[in-house]
């Protein structure tokens, strides 16, 4: 069993925002694999899908982005997982729009939700799939930028990116981190 966590903020107000691409990737996986409706668990919403013989628990933390670890840690403990059985999917404004980057460890790179997960799990060796949302304009408010919607011209490219990100999650589940990193980052 593996745990895939999509980072974002709960509520209609945040749907479709740059900060919620993690939620969007989980929605895509749920639809692809005909998941049952999520249930409230671990301070979030949880459902299960089967991907190429692997059971994936999909978790949408509802703790708001900066406290995501308060949802991830209880699920991690409940399922008695190891760090390599967890994948965090999150936005990254340091990556160009629609660029994906899969890593097995490292800093949070300014992503506060990922930073909280790393802090709560006590290790930076947590696999993560970063989804590029593009950089804010120079001098722009970063918080306002990540909470904004994608421009109409960006939407088609991001829709394709979300589908690709869901495929990367499936490959990670089936083939492991190193193989999938070589495919995704190459």
From TrEMBL:
Domain of life of the source:
Bacteria
Q: Where is the active site?
A: 19
**Where's it found, cell-wise?**
Cytoplasm
- Which PROSITE patterns does UniProt cross-reference here? PEPT_TRNA_HYDROL_1
Q: Where is this site: Discriminates between blocked and unblocked aminoacyl-tRNA?
A: 9
Q: In the record, which residues are listed under signal peptide?
A: none
Enzyme Commission number(s): 3.1.1.29
**Its GO CC terms?**
cytoplasm
Q: Which GO BP terms, alphabetically?
A: protein quality control for misfolded or incompletely synthesized proteins; rescue of stalled ribosome
| Keywords noted in UniProt | Cytoplasm, Hydrolase, RNA-binding, tRNA-binding
How it assembles, according to the record, is: Monomer.
What protein am I looking at? Answer: Peptidyl-tRNA hydrolase
Q: Which organism is it from?
A: Bremerella volcania
Taxonomic classification, please?
Bacteria, Pseudomonadati, Planctomycetota, Planctomycetia, Pirellulales
From the UniProt record, report the name of the gene that encodes this protein. pth
